[in-house]
Structure formats: C-alpha cells, structure tokens
Amino acid sequence: EVQLVESGGGLVQPGRSLRLSCAASGFTFDDYAMHWVRQAPGKGLEWVSGISWNSGSIGYADSVKGRFTISRDNAKNSLYLQMNSLRAEDTALYYCAKDMAPATAGAFDIWGQGTMVTVSS
Amino acid sequence: QSALTQPASVSGSPGQSITISCTGTSSDVGGYNYVSWYQQHPGKAPKLMIYEVSNRPSGVPDRFSGSKSGNTASLTISGLQAEDEADYYCSSYTSSSTLEGVFGGGTKLTVL
Q: With CB atoms 3.0 to 4.6 Å apart as the test, which of A9, A116, B22, B50 could cross-link to B73 if both were Cys?
C-alpha cells in the first residue's frame, strides 16, 4: 500500500525548533520529488517546501525561507523538515506529499494524514 | 510567491455544471503546464483531481475536467453530485531555478 506517515508535530514555544519526519512506503521513494504543505486551522493550503529526487533542487516559500530546512534520506525512505525560530503563524497541520515527477512542484498525488504543529507560549 | 486567485465560493444544483477559475501570472500558471487541482473534504487530506492542466488520475470521474488559457486555469465539474461538495484548490509550479510551487486560496463548492 502506498503510504506517507508524518510524525514529530506538537506544542512548541515561539522561537524554538521542531523536526518533522515523513516515512514513505509502497513506492520507489527516490524516483520522486517530495514536498511539505501546511494548512492553518480553518485556512487554505500553503506550499511550504519541496526537494527533488536527489536533493539537487530545493525550494522554500518566502514565509519560511531562512528558518526551515528540508532534507531527505533515500536509504531510509524518509523526508524531513527542520523548523527553527518558530512563530505563532507557523501553527498548522503539516502534510507530506509526493510529487508525480522527480524534480518539479507539479502535482501531488499521494498525501499523508498530517502532523499538527502548534506554536504558543 | 503570491497565492493564485480563486473565487471564495461557487454553487450549483445536482446535475448542473460549474467552473472554478484559478488566475496567476506568466511566472506560474501561464508559464508552465504544471497546473493541478485538489479536492478536500472536511477533516480529510487533499485528493489530486487534475494534473498537468487537464489530465485525470486513475479513479477520478470524467465529470471532472481542466483547461487553461493564458494565466487562468479552470476546473469544470459536470453532472454535479452531492459528494462533490468540498473545498477545491488549484496549484502551479512556479520556478524552474528552484523547486517551488504555489496554491490558490481555495473555493468552497456547495451543491444546493
């Protein structure tokens, strides 16, 4: 079964850090780009960051540039998001999503169920 | 990286057709054929409905179709059904120098 399972979310104080993980199974992980997409409570989807199949191409939304770092470990079929200097506006459900191609942000055909990040003192 | 522009809401009666627009710029929607559409029911993860402007993934009914003209993409749902009531989001690739994407603000579809 094709599956993405996120973990690592939780309650964190402003200014602190958190690392999200996404475990992939059921497909050849290193054939595809991967992304993080978030959704604040009651709001729409926001693309956060993406990484190509070989980590050669990486992109970030302006809202997280310089604070978040995406990475992947193809040997472990895993995607990560290191989030530093967290702000209240980073509070959201964070989804891991698989791209249909190796090096684009073109179409996200597989999604996890999300992990909730709450930034609050 | 400005969000793509979608209408906040659309509505239609069962059996009717509706169209949701998604307006961007020549740097995203108009510059690439990597426009996709997602359906999201409350409390659920998004589901891919259309990719590369007009292609349907396996399992998506042919009542769903996509198109693009210039900087505006469109999702059309024909023969509306009650289960089509959901939020719909468009997305586009927006950079080839780095790997970047952008979503629209979302459209709430109400089936009357």
A: B22
